[in-house]
Amino acid sequence: MTIRLISVLALCASLTCAQTSTQSVKSGKKHTSAKHDIGSGAGDVGKGAGKAVGSAAKGTGKAAADLVTLHPINAATDLGKGAVGVGKNAGVGAVKGSAKIVRGTGKALKHIF
Fold this sequence. Notes:
113 residues, mainly alpha
């Protein structure tokens, strides 16, 4: 009986220690500087533009291949998919990047005033 009680107490103590150490690690929020936010925002805009160009090239290439093999319906579909990919990738990159740039600009202005 005492051995079980000791093992239960040891288990509870180890769980409590594990919970507090995990909570302290999870609660720590990573702080970034204003210039880091602005730089990573510009990078996100660039990544979105790069993905958009890749999507356009992929759709155009597939459409050209479909036209050569006399599949005009598939060509139109592939060209449309490429255009949708361009809009999606450019939009996502611009929104994510702009948000980070605005956050960084806000931090920079906060330090000035």
